[in-house]
Write a structure and sequence with these properties.
The chain has a domain at 199-278. Helix content is 69%, strand content 0%. The protein contains 16 helices and no strands. It has helices at 2-43, 49-62, 68-74, 80-93, 99-103, 111-124, 127-135, 142-155, 161-170, 174-188, 196-199, 201-206, 212-228, 239-251, 258-262, 268-273. Helix 1 (2-43) crosses helix 2 (49-62) and helix 2 packs parallel to helix 4.
């Protein structure tokens, strides 16, 4: 009887311990998460830019609103790579407190900080965020204007129609005008139009030197070649693809492969032609 009673008591103890663990585990996990967020917030002040960059990245993934104030403070970081990640992190968290501080980031010296700011404002949403995106239609950087138009196409309402119509008719860059036209189509619920470059490419190629858009494409391809040693047969792309390639090349890390950076964005021929640029040096 004693042996049976001992087994019964042991079973009760095991079951009790199991339920205690279930009850305590969320609390333990919560405390661990808090400690992790607190550590990451401290890392935003680290002397190494890479540590600050990684801290911002993880805080964004955590989506913990306790990190918002620290990330807003980190918008003033001297390193452009850190500022890019901080603006992105604020967008991932999606707290409206970040809208006003993000306004000045639309004039950041780094164009990719500006573009991440647009994404963050779009993700946060709300009237104030949309108003700031509309102001970016007049940004001095055409890539920022193009991304602002695309953002308004996805999330803008009737308030964006007037500004987009002005950009579609007056912007100096044809690809910005086209982005505004596409945004208007999305807002109005109309059938999308095809990009002129892909439908009329052969005509443009025959007279490349007289086509302003092909001239722009050649200039972007030349810039990519000079800055990143990447050789592209630019006539096989459209202007938005080339600008996307340029943006990805600027933001890549040394350990990245050509597939992780450019994927299927480049042609098979260009991917093989430039593969040596991504090989790790021994």
């Amino acid at each position: 009887m004693n042996r049976g009673g001992n087994k019964h008591r042991a079973l009760i103890q095991e079951v009790s311990f199991f339920f205690i663990c279930i009850l305590l585990f969320p609390t333990i996990a919560f405390l661990q998460d808090n400690n992790t967020v607190a550590d990451l917030i401290k890392d935003l002040q680290d002397e190494k830019p890479l540590v600050r960059w990684q801290a911002a990245e993880h805080l964004g993934r955590s989506q913990d609103v306790k990190a918002v104030e620290a990330l807003i403070e980190a918008l003033r970081d001297e390193d452009e790579g850190v500022r890019r990640e901080v603006t992105k992190a604020l967008g991932e968290i999606g707290d409206s407190r970040a809208v006003k501080p993000l306004e000045k980031m639309l004039e950041d010296t780094d164009e990719f900080v500006r573009m991440n700011t647009l994404w963050a404002l779009e993700n946060i949403g709300g009237d104030e965020a949309m108003k700031l995106i509309i102001t970016a239609l007049k940004n001095d950087n055409p890539l920022v204007r193009m991304n602002a138009a695309a953002s308004l196409g996805r999330s803008g309402g009737s308030q964006a129609i007037g500004p987009l119509e002005e950009v579609a008719s007056r912007d100096a860059q044809s690809y910005v005008r086209f982005a505004a036209e596409q945004a208007l189509v999305q807002i109005r619920g109309e059938a999308p139009v095809k990009p002129p470059i892909k439908t009329q490419k052969q005509t443009f190629i025959a007279d490349a030197h007289k086509t302003p858009l092909l001239t722009e494409m050649a200039q972007v391809a030349q810039r990519i070649n000079e800055e990143y040693d990447l050789i592209l047969d630019y006539q096989k792309y459209d202007i938005m693809d080339l600008l996307d390639i340029e943006a990805r090349m600027k933001m890549r890390h040394p350990q990245d492969t050509i597939e992780s950076v450019l994927g299927n964005l480049v042609t098979v021929e260009d991917r093989e032609r430039n593969r040596h640029l991504f090989e790790k040096k021994q």
